[in-house]
Amino acid sequence: MTGASLKEAGKGRWRLAGELDFSSVPDVWPSLDRALRDRAAVNLSLDGVERANSAGLVMLLEALDVARERGCQLRLDAVPDELLDLARMSNCEALLAGNQPRR
């Protein structure tokens, strides 16, 4: 297990890296929640995510919901295929795919 980290990558830009699983999500969620506060837009790159399970998917769906409630536009970039597959199996792919640029 490598855990997960969220690092600021520029104004309004963040990068999520590592493994998004049941042990790492509770550690990284508070940082992501803070990143979504008092901002009109946040671009979250997932290009550093090595592995993810349903906990990672739920965290991203929650982040999209929290951002919407706060009036923040959350854009997900480079969502790993593993997460898109999980979302597809959970019938919520459109929620993730609609927030990232077309490939």
Please describe the structure with a list of short key phrases separated by commas or semicolons.
103 residues, alpha/beta, Transcription Regulator spoIIAA, 4-stranded mixed beta sheet, 4 helices, 4 strands, 40% helix
Fold topology:
Layout: E1 4-10, E2 13-20, H1 25-35, E3 41-52, H2 54-69, E4 73-77, H3 81-89, H4 93-97
Parallel strand pairs: 2-3, 3-4
Antiparallel strand pairs: 1-2
The largest sheet, given as strand count, sense and whether it forms a barrel, is: 4 strands, mixed
Number of domains: 1
Record field, number of beta strands: 4
CATH architecture: 2-Layer Sandwich
Outline the low-pLDDT stretches.
Answer: none
Identify the strand order in the major beta sheet: 1-2-3-4
Beta-strand content bin: 25-35%
Q: What oligomeric state do these chains adopt? A: single chain
Amount of helix: 25-40%
Characterize this entry briefly:
The chain is an alpha/beta fold.
Give an overview of the whole structure.
This protein is α/β, with parallel strands linked by helices. The chain has a single domain, classed as STAS domain (Transcription Regulator spoIIAA, 2-Layer Sandwich), CATH 3.30.750. The protein is built from four helices and four strands; from the N terminus they run E-E-H-E-H-E-H-H. The protein has a four-stranded mixed sheet, covered by helices on one side. The termini are far apart. The model has no long low-confidence stretch (mean pLDDT 91).
